[in-house]
Amino acid sequence: MKVHYECAACYLRQAREALDLATSDESLKMEIMEDIIRTLGENFRNGAVTNQMGTAMHRNIKKKTGNRDPYQDQREKCNQIAQQFLPLIVKLLEDDNSLKNYLKAAITGNIIDFGALGLETDIKDLILKNMQKDLAIDHSAQLEKELKKAQNVLYLADNIGEIVFDKLLIEKIKEYQVKVIMALKEEPILNDACIPDALEIGLDEVAELTSIGTDSIGIIYYDASSQFREIFQNADLVIAKGLGNYEGLDEMDLGEKPVFCLLNAKCKPVAREIGVKTGDSVVMRI
Amino acid sequence: MKVHYECAACYLRQAREALDLATSDESLKMEIMEDIIRTLGENFRNGAVTNQMGTAMHRNIKKKTGNRDPYQDQREKCNQIAQQFLPLIVKLLEDDNSLKNYLKAAITGNIIDFGALGLETDIKDLILKNMQKDLAIDHSAQLEKELKKAQNVLYLADNIGEIVFDKLLIEKIKEYQVKVIMALKEEPILNDACIPDALEIGLDEVAELTSIGTDSIGIIYYDASSQFREIFQNADLVIAKGLGNYEGLDEMDLGEKPVFCLLNAKCKPVAREIGVKTGDSVVMRI
After folding, report:
1. Extents of the domains making up chain B
2. Residue A203 DSSP symbol
3. A37 vs B41: CB contact, 8 Å cut-off?
4. What is the rounded radius of gyration, in angstroms, for the C-alpha atoms of chain A?
Protein backbone atom coordinates (compact mmCIF):
# COMPACT_ATOMS: atom_id res chain seq x y z
CA MET A 1 0.00 0.00 0.00
CA LYS A 2 1.08 3.52 -0.71
CA VAL A 3 1.02 6.19 1.98
CA HIS A 4 -2.04 8.38 2.48
CA TYR A 5 -1.84 11.86 3.97
CA GLU A 6 -2.89 10.53 7.40
CA CYS A 7 0.05 8.12 7.59
CA ALA A 8 2.60 10.82 8.42
CA ALA A 9 0.98 11.66 11.76
CA CYS A 10 0.65 7.97 12.53
CA TYR A 11 4.35 7.30 11.88
CA LEU A 12 5.38 10.00 14.33
CA ARG A 13 2.89 8.85 16.96
CA GLN A 14 4.34 5.36 16.62
CA ALA A 15 7.85 6.77 16.78
CA ARG A 16 7.06 8.62 19.99
CA GLU A 17 5.51 5.52 21.55
CA ALA A 18 8.38 3.27 20.49
CA LEU A 19 10.96 5.78 21.76
CA ASP A 20 9.17 6.03 25.11
CA LEU A 21 9.29 2.25 25.40
CA ALA A 22 12.85 1.91 24.11
CA THR A 23 14.75 4.39 26.28
CA SER A 24 14.41 6.92 29.07
CA ASP A 25 17.21 9.11 27.67
CA GLU A 26 15.36 12.24 26.56
CA SER A 27 18.19 13.81 24.62
CA LEU A 28 18.62 10.56 22.71
CA LYS A 29 14.88 10.53 21.98
CA MET A 30 15.16 14.06 20.58
CA GLU A 31 18.17 13.13 18.47
CA ILE A 32 16.43 10.10 17.02
CA MET A 33 13.17 12.01 16.46
CA GLU A 34 15.09 14.68 14.51
CA ASP A 35 16.58 11.97 12.37
CA ILE A 36 13.21 10.27 11.82
CA ILE A 37 11.56 13.51 10.73
CA ARG A 38 14.44 14.35 8.41
CA THR A 39 14.12 10.93 6.79
CA LEU A 40 10.33 11.24 6.64
CA GLY A 41 10.68 14.70 5.11
CA GLU A 42 12.89 13.29 2.39
CA ASN A 43 10.77 10.23 1.63
CA PHE A 44 7.13 10.88 2.45
CA ARG A 45 5.46 11.50 -0.86
CA ASN A 46 2.81 10.12 -3.14
CA GLY A 47 3.83 6.60 -4.08
CA ALA A 48 5.96 5.86 -1.03
CA VAL A 49 5.27 2.39 0.38
CA THR A 50 3.87 2.26 3.91
CA ASN A 51 5.69 -0.85 5.10
CA GLN A 52 9.06 0.30 3.82
CA MET A 53 8.83 3.64 5.61
CA GLY A 54 7.50 2.14 8.84
CA THR A 55 10.06 -0.65 8.90
CA ALA A 56 12.97 1.75 8.33
CA MET A 57 11.71 3.94 11.16
CA HIS A 58 11.34 1.17 13.72
CA ARG A 59 14.69 -0.36 12.75
CA ASN A 60 16.26 3.07 13.24
CA ILE A 61 14.75 3.33 16.73
CA LYS A 62 15.96 -0.15 17.68
CA LYS A 63 19.45 0.47 16.33
CA LYS A 64 19.99 3.94 17.80
CA THR A 65 18.57 3.10 21.25
CA GLY A 66 20.36 -0.25 21.32
CA ASN A 67 17.06 -1.77 22.43
CA ARG A 68 16.30 -4.74 20.20
CA ASP A 69 12.78 -5.12 21.58
CA PRO A 70 11.12 -1.94 22.88
CA TYR A 71 7.83 -3.82 23.24
CA GLN A 72 9.32 -6.53 25.44
CA ASP A 73 7.01 -5.78 28.38
CA GLN A 74 4.01 -6.38 26.15
CA ARG A 75 5.65 -9.50 24.75
CA GLU A 76 5.84 -10.91 28.24
CA LYS A 77 2.21 -10.40 29.12
CA CYS A 78 0.02 -10.32 25.98
CA ASN A 79 -0.09 -14.07 25.31
CA GLN A 80 -0.90 -14.67 28.97
CA ILE A 81 -3.73 -12.14 28.96
CA ALA A 82 -5.16 -13.48 25.71
CA GLN A 83 -5.11 -17.03 27.06
CA GLN A 84 -7.34 -15.98 29.96
CA PHE A 85 -10.09 -15.43 27.40
CA LEU A 86 -9.70 -18.78 25.67
CA PRO A 87 -12.63 -20.40 27.56
CA LEU A 88 -14.95 -17.57 26.45
CA ILE A 89 -13.86 -17.85 22.83
CA VAL A 90 -14.03 -21.67 22.87
CA LYS A 91 -17.60 -21.42 24.19
CA LEU A 92 -18.57 -19.00 21.40
CA LEU A 93 -17.02 -21.32 18.83
CA GLU A 94 -18.87 -24.33 20.26
CA ASP A 95 -22.14 -22.42 19.85
CA ASP A 96 -21.31 -21.72 16.19
CA ASN A 97 -18.51 -23.86 14.84
CA SER A 98 -18.63 -22.56 11.26
CA LEU A 99 -15.36 -21.59 9.57
CA LYS A 100 -16.67 -18.04 9.38
CA ASN A 101 -17.04 -17.87 13.14
CA TYR A 102 -13.44 -19.06 13.59
CA LEU A 103 -12.34 -16.40 11.10
CA LYS A 104 -14.19 -13.78 13.12
CA ALA A 105 -12.53 -15.02 16.30
CA ALA A 106 -9.10 -14.66 14.68
CA ILE A 107 -9.97 -11.08 13.60
CA THR A 108 -11.23 -10.35 17.10
CA GLY A 109 -7.77 -11.33 18.34
CA ASN A 110 -6.36 -8.76 15.91
CA ILE A 111 -8.61 -5.99 17.19
CA ILE A 112 -7.79 -6.32 20.86
CA ASP A 113 -4.72 -4.58 22.14
CA PHE A 114 -3.92 -6.96 24.97
CA GLY A 115 -1.03 -4.76 26.03
CA ALA A 116 -3.10 -1.62 26.46
CA LEU A 117 -6.28 -3.06 27.95
CA GLY A 118 -5.93 -4.08 31.52
CA LEU A 119 -9.45 -4.64 32.69
CA GLU A 120 -10.87 -8.07 32.19
CA THR A 121 -14.34 -6.64 31.51
CA ASP A 122 -13.04 -4.38 28.72
CA ILE A 123 -11.60 -7.32 26.86
CA LYS A 124 -14.62 -9.55 27.47
CA ASP A 125 -16.95 -6.82 26.15
CA LEU A 126 -14.76 -6.28 23.11
CA ILE A 127 -14.72 -9.98 22.32
CA LEU A 128 -18.49 -10.32 22.60
CA LYS A 129 -19.12 -7.16 20.59
CA ASN A 130 -16.79 -8.14 17.78
CA MET A 131 -17.99 -11.73 17.58
CA GLN A 132 -21.54 -10.43 17.14
CA LYS A 133 -20.68 -7.85 14.49
CA ASP A 134 -21.00 -8.91 10.85
CA LEU A 135 -18.09 -8.86 8.43
CA ALA A 136 -18.19 -5.83 6.12
CA ILE A 137 -16.57 -7.89 3.36
CA ASP A 138 -17.14 -11.63 3.62
CA HIS A 139 -15.21 -13.91 1.27
CA SER A 140 -15.26 -16.75 3.80
CA ALA A 141 -17.17 -19.04 1.43
CA GLN A 142 -14.48 -18.51 -1.23
CA LEU A 143 -11.84 -19.14 1.39
CA GLU A 144 -13.51 -22.41 2.34
CA LYS A 145 -13.63 -23.46 -1.31
CA GLU A 146 -9.90 -22.78 -1.68
CA LEU A 147 -9.20 -24.63 1.56
CA LYS A 148 -10.88 -27.70 0.19
CA LYS A 149 -8.57 -27.62 -2.85
CA ALA A 150 -5.38 -26.75 -0.98
CA GLN A 151 -2.63 -28.89 0.45
CA ASN A 152 -0.24 -26.22 1.76
CA VAL A 153 -1.53 -23.20 3.62
CA LEU A 154 0.72 -20.32 4.60
CA TYR A 155 -0.55 -18.33 7.58
CA LEU A 156 1.04 -14.90 8.11
CA ALA A 157 0.88 -13.99 11.79
CA ASP A 158 0.59 -10.47 13.15
CA ASN A 159 0.73 -9.66 16.89
CA ILE A 160 1.49 -11.35 20.17
CA GLY A 161 -1.71 -12.08 22.10
CA GLU A 162 -3.59 -12.36 18.84
CA ILE A 163 -1.74 -15.58 18.00
CA VAL A 164 -3.61 -17.31 20.85
CA PHE A 165 -6.79 -16.81 18.80
CA ASP A 166 -4.99 -17.75 15.57
CA LYS A 167 -4.22 -21.14 17.07
CA LEU A 168 -7.94 -21.92 17.24
CA LEU A 169 -8.44 -20.97 13.58
CA ILE A 170 -5.47 -23.08 12.51
CA GLU A 171 -6.90 -26.09 14.35
CA LYS A 172 -10.16 -25.54 12.48
CA ILE A 173 -8.33 -25.14 9.15
CA LYS A 174 -6.59 -28.46 9.72
CA GLU A 175 -9.96 -30.19 9.56
CA TYR A 176 -9.64 -29.54 5.80
CA GLN A 177 -6.66 -31.91 5.66
CA VAL A 178 -4.08 -29.27 4.90
CA LYS A 179 -0.56 -28.64 6.14
CA VAL A 180 -0.24 -25.23 7.75
CA ILE A 181 2.97 -23.21 7.94
CA MET A 182 2.79 -20.17 10.17
CA ALA A 183 5.27 -17.40 9.38
CA LEU A 184 6.41 -15.06 12.15
CA LYS A 185 9.02 -12.32 12.45
CA GLU A 186 12.68 -13.25 12.71
CA GLU A 187 13.40 -10.39 15.13
CA PRO A 188 11.05 -8.26 17.24
CA ILE A 189 9.44 -5.22 15.64
CA LEU A 190 6.52 -3.45 17.29
CA ASN A 191 4.43 -6.07 19.08
CA ASP A 192 4.66 -8.51 16.19
CA ALA A 193 4.88 -12.17 17.15
CA CYS A 194 8.17 -14.06 16.78
CA ILE A 195 8.82 -17.81 16.89
CA PRO A 196 9.45 -17.93 20.68
CA ASP A 197 6.09 -16.22 21.24
CA ALA A 198 4.40 -18.90 19.14
CA LEU A 199 6.25 -21.72 20.92
CA GLU A 200 5.11 -20.32 24.26
CA ILE A 201 1.49 -21.12 23.42
CA GLY A 202 2.16 -24.40 21.62
CA LEU A 203 1.51 -23.22 18.09
CA ASP A 204 4.11 -25.76 16.94
CA GLU A 205 1.56 -28.46 17.85
CA VAL A 206 -0.78 -27.32 15.07
CA ALA A 207 1.50 -25.67 12.49
CA GLU A 208 5.03 -25.73 11.20
CA LEU A 209 6.64 -22.51 12.40
CA THR A 210 8.93 -20.46 10.24
CA SER A 211 10.08 -16.85 10.07
CA ILE A 212 9.99 -14.39 7.22
CA GLY A 213 13.74 -14.04 7.76
CA THR A 214 13.65 -10.44 8.87
CA ASP A 215 11.86 -7.91 11.10
CA SER A 216 9.80 -5.96 8.55
CA ILE A 217 6.33 -4.60 9.27
CA GLY A 218 4.13 -7.02 7.39
CA ILE A 219 5.82 -8.48 4.35
CA ILE A 220 8.26 -6.58 2.18
CA TYR A 221 8.80 -9.28 -0.39
CA TYR A 222 12.33 -8.39 -1.55
CA ASP A 223 13.37 -8.04 2.10
CA ALA A 224 12.16 -11.50 3.18
CA SER A 225 14.49 -14.52 3.15
CA SER A 226 14.75 -16.71 0.05
CA GLN A 227 13.51 -19.57 2.23
CA PHE A 228 10.35 -17.64 3.06
CA ARG A 229 9.86 -16.57 -0.56
CA GLU A 230 10.03 -20.25 -1.56
CA ILE A 231 7.40 -21.15 1.05
CA PHE A 232 5.24 -18.31 -0.24
CA GLN A 233 5.55 -19.46 -3.84
CA ASN A 234 4.76 -23.07 -2.91
CA ALA A 235 1.71 -22.26 -0.81
CA ASP A 236 -1.64 -23.14 -2.39
CA LEU A 237 -3.37 -20.61 -0.20
CA VAL A 238 -2.24 -17.69 1.96
CA ILE A 239 -4.11 -16.37 4.99
CA ALA A 240 -2.74 -13.05 6.25
CA LYS A 241 -3.60 -11.31 9.48
CA GLY A 242 -3.69 -7.59 10.15
CA LEU A 243 -2.92 -4.29 8.49
CA GLY A 244 0.82 -4.69 7.97
CA ASN A 245 0.43 -7.93 6.05
CA TYR A 246 -2.38 -6.47 3.93
CA GLU A 247 -0.26 -3.42 3.15
CA GLY A 248 2.65 -5.61 2.11
CA LEU A 249 0.64 -8.09 0.02
CA ASP A 250 -1.09 -5.16 -1.69
CA GLU A 251 2.34 -4.25 -3.13
CA MET A 252 3.01 -7.73 -4.54
CA ASP A 253 2.10 -9.34 -7.82
CA LEU A 254 0.11 -12.29 -6.49
CA GLY A 255 -0.84 -13.75 -9.86
CA GLU A 256 -3.54 -16.40 -9.42
CA LYS A 257 -2.59 -17.33 -5.89
CA PRO A 258 -5.55 -17.16 -3.52
CA VAL A 259 -4.60 -14.74 -0.75
CA PHE A 260 -7.11 -13.81 1.95
CA CYS A 261 -6.66 -10.96 4.39
CA LEU A 262 -8.28 -11.16 7.80
CA LEU A 263 -8.28 -7.73 9.34
CA ASN A 264 -10.06 -4.94 11.08
CA ALA A 265 -9.80 -1.62 9.24
CA LYS A 266 -8.31 0.20 12.20
CA CYS A 267 -7.23 3.28 10.27
CA LYS A 268 -8.82 5.52 7.66
CA PRO A 269 -6.28 4.90 4.87
CA VAL A 270 -6.81 1.12 4.94
CA ALA A 271 -10.58 1.53 5.27
CA ARG A 272 -10.53 3.90 2.28
CA GLU A 273 -8.42 1.50 0.18
CA ILE A 274 -10.68 -1.48 0.75
CA GLY A 275 -13.90 0.51 0.70
CA VAL A 276 -15.21 -0.10 4.21
CA LYS A 277 -15.71 2.01 7.31
CA THR A 278 -13.08 2.46 9.99
CA GLY A 279 -13.61 -0.28 12.55
CA ASP A 280 -15.11 -2.75 10.07
CA SER A 281 -13.81 -6.31 9.92
CA VAL A 282 -13.21 -8.16 6.68
CA VAL A 283 -12.32 -11.59 5.29
CA MET A 284 -11.22 -10.47 1.87
CA ARG A 285 -9.55 -12.11 -1.09
CA ILE A 286 -7.11 -9.61 -2.55
CA MET B 1 9.49 27.30 24.41
CA LYS B 2 11.74 25.04 22.41
CA VAL B 3 10.44 21.85 20.85
CA HIS B 4 10.58 18.55 22.71
CA TYR B 5 10.73 15.20 20.95
CA GLU B 6 6.97 14.70 21.43
CA CYS B 7 6.09 17.90 19.56
CA ALA B 8 6.74 16.41 16.13
CA ALA B 9 3.92 13.87 16.40
CA CYS B 10 1.63 16.58 17.77
CA TYR B 11 2.35 18.91 14.83
CA LEU B 12 1.38 16.24 12.33
CA ARG B 13 -1.74 15.26 14.26
CA GLN B 14 -2.76 18.92 14.24
CA ALA B 15 -1.92 19.15 10.54
CA ARG B 16 -4.12 16.15 9.78
CA GLU B 17 -7.00 17.58 11.82
CA ALA B 18 -6.68 21.04 10.27
CA LEU B 19 -6.49 19.57 6.76
CA ASP B 20 -9.59 17.48 7.38
CA LEU B 21 -11.43 20.61 8.49
CA ALA B 22 -10.04 22.83 5.74
CA THR B 23 -10.74 20.80 2.62
CA SER B 24 -12.22 17.57 1.32
CA ASP B 25 -9.75 17.39 -1.59
CA GLU B 26 -7.63 14.38 -0.70
CA SER B 27 -4.91 14.88 -3.26
CA LEU B 28 -4.52 18.45 -2.03
CA LYS B 29 -4.28 17.17 1.55
CA MET B 30 -1.50 14.80 0.46
CA GLU B 31 0.33 17.56 -1.38
CA ILE B 32 0.19 19.89 1.62
CA MET B 33 1.14 17.12 4.04
CA GLU B 34 4.21 16.32 1.94
CA ASP B 35 5.17 19.97 2.09
CA ILE B 36 4.58 20.17 5.85
CA ILE B 37 6.75 17.13 6.51
CA ARG B 38 9.50 18.41 4.25
CA THR B 39 9.50 21.71 6.14
CA LEU B 40 9.35 19.93 9.48
CA GLY B 41 12.22 17.68 8.40
CA GLU B 42 14.33 20.72 7.61
CA ASN B 43 13.51 22.67 10.77
CA PHE B 44 12.63 20.31 13.61
CA ARG B 45 15.69 20.24 15.79
CA ASN B 46 16.89 21.06 19.27
CA GLY B 47 16.38 24.77 19.79
CA ALA B 48 13.53 25.24 17.31
CA VAL B 49 10.73 27.39 18.76
CA THR B 50 7.35 25.67 19.11
CA ASN B 51 5.15 28.66 18.23
CA GLN B 52 7.15 29.56 15.13
CA MET B 53 6.92 26.03 13.72
CA GLY B 54 3.24 25.62 14.57
CA THR B 55 2.29 29.02 13.19
CA ALA B 56 4.12 28.43 9.92
CA MET B 57 2.38 25.09 9.55
CA HIS B 58 -1.15 26.38 10.13
CA ARG B 59 -0.57 29.40 7.89
CA ASN B 60 0.61 27.02 5.17
CA ILE B 61 -2.59 24.97 5.50
CA LYS B 62 -4.78 28.08 5.37
CA LYS B 63 -2.93 29.46 2.37
CA LYS B 64 -2.74 26.28 0.32
CA THR B 65 -6.33 25.21 0.95
CA GLY B 66 -7.63 28.75 0.46
CA ASN B 67 -9.62 28.28 3.67
CA ARG B 68 -8.93 31.21 5.97
CA ASP B 69 -10.73 29.58 8.90
CA PRO B 70 -10.74 25.76 8.94
CA TYR B 71 -12.20 25.82 12.46
CA GLN B 72 -15.16 27.97 11.45
CA ASP B 73 -17.73 25.36 12.49
CA GLN B 74 -16.30 25.35 15.99
CA ARG B 75 -16.18 29.14 15.97
CA GLU B 76 -19.91 29.19 15.34
CA LYS B 77 -20.86 26.93 18.19
CA CYS B 78 -18.25 27.03 20.98
CA ASN B 79 -19.24 30.33 22.55
CA GLN B 80 -22.88 29.24 22.50
CA ILE B 81 -22.09 25.91 24.16
CA ALA B 82 -19.89 27.57 26.80
CA GLN B 83 -22.60 30.09 27.62
CA GLN B 84 -24.99 27.27 28.47
CA PHE B 85 -22.75 26.52 31.43
CA LEU B 86 -22.56 30.08 32.72
CA PRO B 87 -25.27 29.56 35.40
CA LEU B 88 -23.33 26.59 36.81
CA ILE B 89 -20.07 28.54 36.89
CA VAL B 90 -21.74 31.63 38.35
CA LYS B 91 -23.20 29.47 41.13
CA LEU B 92 -19.76 28.00 41.93
CA LEU B 93 -18.27 31.50 42.00
CA GLU B 94 -21.03 32.71 44.31
CA ASP B 95 -20.20 29.90 46.72
CA ASP B 96 -16.52 30.92 46.72
CA ASN B 97 -15.93 34.37 45.29
CA SER B 98 -12.17 34.47 45.90
CA LEU B 99 -9.89 35.62 43.07
CA LYS B 100 -8.36 32.15 43.10
CA ASN B 101 -11.71 30.56 42.35
CA TYR B 102 -12.24 32.91 39.40
CA LEU B 103 -8.75 32.01 38.15
CA LYS B 104 -9.66 28.33 38.40
CA ALA B 105 -12.86 28.99 36.46
CA ALA B 106 -10.89 30.68 33.69
CA ILE B 107 -8.49 27.71 33.54
CA THR B 108 -11.46 25.34 33.49
CA GLY B 109 -12.62 27.20 30.38
CA ASN B 110 -9.20 26.48 28.88
CA ILE B 111 -9.42 22.76 29.63
CA ILE B 112 -12.76 22.11 28.01
CA ASP B 113 -12.86 21.52 24.30
CA PHE B 114 -16.33 22.89 23.64
CA GLY B 115 -16.04 21.90 20.00
CA ALA B 116 -15.32 18.25 20.66
CA LEU B 117 -17.61 17.58 23.62
CA GLY B 118 -21.22 17.31 22.68
CA LEU B 119 -22.85 15.88 25.75
CA GLU B 120 -24.01 18.33 28.32
CA THR B 121 -23.19 15.94 31.14
CA ASP B 122 -19.58 15.55 29.95
CA ILE B 123 -18.99 19.27 30.16
CA LYS B 124 -20.80 19.64 33.49
CA ASP B 125 -18.72 16.84 35.00
CA LEU B 126 -15.52 18.36 33.65
CA ILE B 127 -16.37 21.76 35.11
CA LEU B 128 -17.17 20.35 38.54
CA LYS B 129 -14.08 18.14 38.56
CA ASN B 130 -11.73 20.92 37.54
CA MET B 131 -13.20 23.48 39.91
CA GLN B 132 -12.64 21.05 42.79
CA LYS B 133 -9.06 20.17 41.85
CA ASP B 134 -6.27 22.18 43.47
CA LEU B 135 -3.77 24.19 41.48
CA ALA B 136 -0.42 22.41 41.15
CA ILE B 137 1.37 25.79 41.14
CA ASP B 138 -0.53 28.57 42.85
CA HIS B 139 0.82 32.10 42.54
CA SER B 140 -2.65 33.59 42.88
CA ALA B 141 -1.70 35.53 46.01
CA GLN B 142 1.21 37.15 44.12
CA LEU B 143 -1.14 37.88 41.25
CA GLU B 144 -3.55 39.58 43.64
CA LYS B 145 -0.71 41.67 45.07
CA GLU B 146 0.28 42.81 41.58
CA LEU B 147 -3.34 43.55 40.71
CA LYS B 148 -3.57 45.88 43.68
CA LYS B 149 -0.56 47.82 42.36
CA ALA B 150 -1.53 47.79 38.68
CA GLN B 151 -3.44 50.26 36.57
CA ASN B 152 -3.23 48.59 33.15
CA VAL B 153 -3.76 44.85 32.78
CA LEU B 154 -3.18 43.07 29.50
CA TYR B 155 -5.15 39.83 29.16
CA LEU B 156 -4.01 37.45 26.42
CA ALA B 157 -6.94 35.35 25.26
CA ASP B 158 -6.73 31.81 23.95
CA ASN B 159 -9.71 29.89 22.53
CA ILE B 160 -13.30 30.51 21.57
CA GLY B 161 -15.69 29.10 24.17
CA GLU B 162 -13.06 29.65 26.84
CA ILE B 163 -13.48 33.44 26.50
CA VAL B 164 -16.97 33.10 28.02
CA PHE B 165 -15.25 32.05 31.25
CA ASP B 166 -12.56 34.72 30.81
CA LYS B 167 -15.27 37.36 30.89
CA LEU B 168 -16.15 36.39 34.46
CA LEU B 169 -12.52 36.64 35.56
CA ILE B 170 -12.12 40.04 33.90
CA GLU B 171 -15.21 41.30 35.73
CA LYS B 172 -13.62 40.11 38.97
CA ILE B 173 -10.28 41.70 38.09
CA LYS B 174 -11.99 45.04 37.50
CA GLU B 175 -12.95 45.12 41.18
CA TYR B 176 -9.26 45.99 41.67
CA GLN B 177 -9.82 49.29 39.84
CA VAL B 178 -7.75 48.42 36.80
CA LYS B 179 -8.23 48.96 33.11
CA VAL B 180 -8.19 45.67 31.20
CA ILE B 181 -7.17 45.28 27.58
CA MET B 182 -7.91 41.88 26.09
CA ALA B 183 -5.75 40.88 23.13
CA LEU B 184 -7.13 38.45 20.56
CA LYS B 185 -5.97 37.16 17.19
CA GLU B 186 -6.19 39.40 14.13
CA GLU B 187 -7.07 36.47 11.87
CA PRO B 188 -8.33 32.96 12.69
CA ILE B 189 -5.78 30.30 13.53
CA LEU B 190 -6.80 27.01 15.09
CA ASN B 191 -9.76 27.68 17.39
CA ASP B 192 -8.18 30.84 18.80
CA ALA B 193 -10.57 33.67 19.60
CA CYS B 194 -10.67 36.77 17.38
CA ILE B 195 -12.31 40.15 18.06
CA PRO B 196 -15.69 39.21 16.52
CA ASP B 197 -15.82 36.15 18.81
CA ALA B 198 -15.27 38.42 21.81
CA LEU B 199 -17.86 40.96 20.64
CA GLU B 200 -20.38 38.14 20.28
CA ILE B 201 -20.35 37.56 24.04
CA GLY B 202 -20.04 41.22 25.03
CA LEU B 203 -16.45 41.19 26.18
CA ASP B 204 -16.22 44.80 25.03
CA GLU B 205 -18.45 45.65 28.00
CA VAL B 206 -15.70 44.67 30.45
CA ALA B 207 -12.46 45.15 28.54
CA GLU B 208 -10.95 47.13 25.71
CA LEU B 209 -10.49 44.71 22.84
CA THR B 210 -7.43 44.70 20.64
CA SER B 211 -5.64 42.23 18.43
CA ILE B 212 -2.04 41.09 18.42
CA GLY B 213 -1.98 42.20 14.79
CA THR B 214 -1.43 38.76 13.33
CA ASP B 215 -2.56 35.12 13.47
CA SER B 216 0.33 33.49 15.34
CA ILE B 217 -0.11 30.65 17.80
CA GLY B 218 0.33 32.38 21.14
CA ILE B 219 2.64 35.37 20.92
CA ILE B 220 5.65 35.56 18.64
CA TYR B 221 6.87 38.95 19.76
CA TYR B 222 8.63 40.08 16.59
CA ASP B 223 5.61 38.96 14.57
CA ALA B 224 3.06 40.99 16.56
CA SER B 225 2.06 44.50 15.50
CA SER B 226 3.93 47.53 16.85
CA GLN B 227 0.63 48.66 18.36
CA PHE B 228 0.39 45.41 20.33
CA ARG B 229 4.03 45.56 21.37
CA GLU B 230 3.40 49.03 22.76
CA ILE B 231 0.39 47.79 24.72
CA PHE B 232 2.52 44.94 26.03
CA GLN B 233 5.31 47.27 27.13
CA ASN B 234 2.85 49.65 28.82
CA ALA B 235 0.98 46.96 30.72
CA ASP B 236 1.65 46.83 34.46
CA LEU B 237 0.56 43.24 34.57
CA VAL B 238 0.00 40.51 31.97
CA ILE B 239 -2.36 37.59 32.39
CA ALA B 240 -1.95 34.95 29.68
CA LYS B 241 -4.20 32.00 28.98
CA GLY B 242 -3.26 28.61 27.62
CA LEU B 243 -0.27 26.76 26.23
CA GLY B 244 0.42 28.85 23.13
CA ASN B 245 0.74 32.06 25.10
CA TYR B 246 2.97 30.38 27.70
CA GLU B 247 5.18 28.98 24.97
CA GLY B 248 5.51 32.42 23.37
CA LEU B 249 6.12 34.36 26.60
CA ASP B 250 8.72 31.77 27.61
CA GLU B 251 10.77 32.92 24.60
CA MET B 252 10.63 36.62 25.57
CA ASP B 253 12.79 38.73 27.83
CA LEU B 254 10.14 39.87 30.29
CA GLY B 255 12.43 41.87 32.53
CA GLU B 256 10.65 42.80 35.75
CA LYS B 257 7.18 42.78 34.26
CA PRO B 258 4.79 40.57 36.23
CA VAL B 259 3.45 37.99 33.80
CA PHE B 260 1.14 35.23 35.02
CA CYS B 261 0.20 32.19 32.99
CA LEU B 262 -3.13 30.47 33.61
CA LEU B 263 -3.05 27.07 32.00
CA ASN B 264 -3.64 23.40 32.18
CA ALA B 265 -0.56 21.35 31.32
CA LYS B 266 -2.28 19.44 28.55
CA CYS B 267 0.88 17.97 27.05
CA LYS B 268 4.01 16.32 28.41
CA PRO B 269 6.51 18.88 27.06
CA VAL B 270 4.80 21.80 28.83
CA ALA B 271 4.28 19.75 32.00
CA ARG B 272 7.97 18.81 31.95
CA GLU B 273 9.08 22.43 31.43
CA ILE B 274 7.06 23.78 34.34
CA GLY B 275 7.60 20.78 36.58
CA VAL B 276 4.05 19.52 37.04
CA LYS B 277 2.10 16.47 35.92
CA THR B 278 0.16 16.28 32.68
CA GLY B 279 -3.36 17.49 33.39
CA ASP B 280 -2.34 19.77 36.26
CA SER B 281 -3.57 23.36 36.34
CA VAL B 282 -1.38 26.28 37.32
CA VAL B 283 -1.49 30.00 38.05
CA MET B 284 2.17 30.71 37.60
CA ARG B 285 4.32 33.80 37.46
CA ILE B 286 6.95 33.25 34.80
Report:
1. 7-65, 73-285
2. G
3. yes
4. 18
